[in-house]
Amino acid sequence: MIYDLIHLINEIGRLHNRFSTDFFENRQTYNLKKVRVDSVVFNDSYDESFIGLVEEYIEALAEWIFYLDFESNNPLLDTRFRGKNRGSSLNKLTYYRHGKANSSIPLQKCMNDLLGFRIIINQEFDYQELLNQIQNSDRLETSLFRPYVRTDEVYQGIHLYFKSENNKFFPWELQIWKKLDADLNEEAHRKHKEKRKYLTWTSKYDDSTHREE
Q1: How far apart are CA 15 and CA 169, in angstroms?
Q2: CA–CA separation, 180 vs 120, rounded Å?
Q3: Which residues have CB under 8 Å from 65's CB, separation 6+?
Q4: Which pTM was predicted?
Q5: Residue ranges per structural domain of the chain
Q6: pLDDT 10s digits, 125-158
């Protein structure tokens, strides 16, 4: 199972590098590690160039993933992916700017899941042990950004990110779950999103050219 999992991780790394390189070839870029959330989203306005870039990225990604084939022949591995829509992405920016105690965090940490992958494994394993196997595998061909095991009262899973060693590329996220944890993780994810509903992009920024459709 581990070799098939590593193969999928390598594939995400290749896809990220290919898509990102093509997208940013002739576009303005930001150093997402250095530029902070409060540098592009202000109290009553925002950096139109950056928001426009995010919207272009989401649009290009939506067209690209329509043809994306990402699956495994291993019956133990259930693969899924989804792109973030415009409203969800801009709401996340609003939350990080106005709903967090510290809005000076890098954009790289906030805009890190415009494309998210999930691999659900129908087999018992230890999360930390599996992450160690992934990181130490001689078959791993892609660089992993911020790999960690996330655990709280309900949620359990591995999170890792892909940025192709480039701070100007929007990272993509991969979550790895046990099948036994899937229902509780989905519920925890739903509740996490509920917390951000009180603060939305359209209620904070009412510019007619950037209004929710």
Answers
A1: 12
A2: 9
A3: 81, 83, 115
A4: 0.91
A5: 2-210
A6: 999 999 999 999 999 999 999 999 999 888 999 9
